[in-house]
């Protein structure tokens, strides 16, 4: 990636089933070698990683990744030893937030990015910097409780924002709706695919005008917007950007999200303005671009961050 | 107040019914004159104010105070003009948090103070500094939504943390309980006082062993602890301190609060430790001491703040 966020070369590998640290290190070393041997290889001068899971900052150790087999993996140290390149490792939501704040359509200094996909990832930027919590293990907005009696989340808790406002929630709600209405569009779309309802079916049905599917987006957006309002009471964001797969549904998601963020906004809007809720600039690319940008700012060109003068 | 937080002189005045800015300025000017004329008057070198309401930082303008008649009051400017003394004005929860972080039983750099009284006030300290949001109008943890279907809050919204975890919530729940059980202890205590049930009656009954009153504290503590867990997912606090009138109920409040903060804690505790929930050091005095301390650190002795070296 170049300084302006342009991607010069790209390589994708799926996470192997056995995603322990040794397997992952082998895979990553191979990928770095392949990229350095390619057309854009001469310019490679640093590595930035945006990793799923809980990453201790700045040491870049992955402390916990509920969906993978590694734990307490010194990813930054391993990459630096293997490649000799300066490396930064951060949570994927954090770096995606950085990309949106610095290189999105407008520059923002106090901003929340919510990545609504399978889960709800978050990037919080305060005063132009990524906010990560006291030790880099914070900013886990998706696991803020929004209803103690809510459904169980992948993390084990009940009623996290992620449990009611993610693609997983959409799938769960879509399956319940299809079970109650076996002749409805959701059940038909799933049957055509020969399986159970998933979030993509709900999106397709909602975009085709199915009122049941649209009501599920209403419900999901309302939960998301209520969570956003609570975060605005604390952080006074300039803007809240929504990224991730579900933003493809456009106003079906953003409309109810905005309405709830307004309904539950704290204080008179002429005193505490209601932040706009907008779609993110970089869809699936924010993590990749943000990781590169962070590597640039932290290891090569710190002055590039151009932080506000009051920081 | 001295540098160590010792209070040298104290003067109390009730807010007049007509709490417009002119009336309040007259009152405050009189109080400052009286204090400067007293025994400790020679040492008066700055003014620190901890004000209820939404205070723009650092300019010290009170933008909005739902329970008073002033709005957009340049309190800092007025006090400096009237007294000639350097002045700081901040939200009362913020300065109370500062007092607890710097001068409490232990020093904390990443800490939440929740002041559970009529409402729920909050002081967030991050990296040794008060966190106020982007413009000083944030950190309003009491108005974070914890249940979109919850009861109406004094701010007008429904389901704020304050609406379910404050003295006002305790009063509301106590009245409902007494209406359902007119022979119960709550109804009797209210009748003895010749009025309706209030939070104090619920506390008295709970401390005397009344199971109904104790269940209301369970409910209140559970809501408070759930909110705390969500904030810990974002901030990774070292500790959460509980102050305000309701902390007099001790373990009746703190027990269920701790249990819920643990139940809804995000991540394995060996990776993300569960912060302790402890009673605050300074009960009703935290705001006063914190306001003095902030004046000292901001206007006279900034080096006294002793901020961590990584800040």
UniProtKB/TrEMBL annotation, chains A, B:
Keywords from the UniProt entry: Kinase, Transferase
InterPro entries: ATPase_NBD, ROK, ROK_cs
Pfam families xref list: ROK
Xref: Gene3D superfamilies: 3.30.420.40
PROSITE patterns for the chain: ROK
Chain segments carrying region Disordered: 1-23
E.C. designation(s): 2.7.1.2
MF GO annotations: glucokinase activity
Positions with biased composition (Basic and acidic residues): 1-15
Family to which this protein belongs: Belongs to the ROK (NagC/XylR) family.
Record-given protein name: Glucokinase
Biological source species: Pseudonocardia autotrophica (Amycolata autotrophica)
Gene: glkA_3
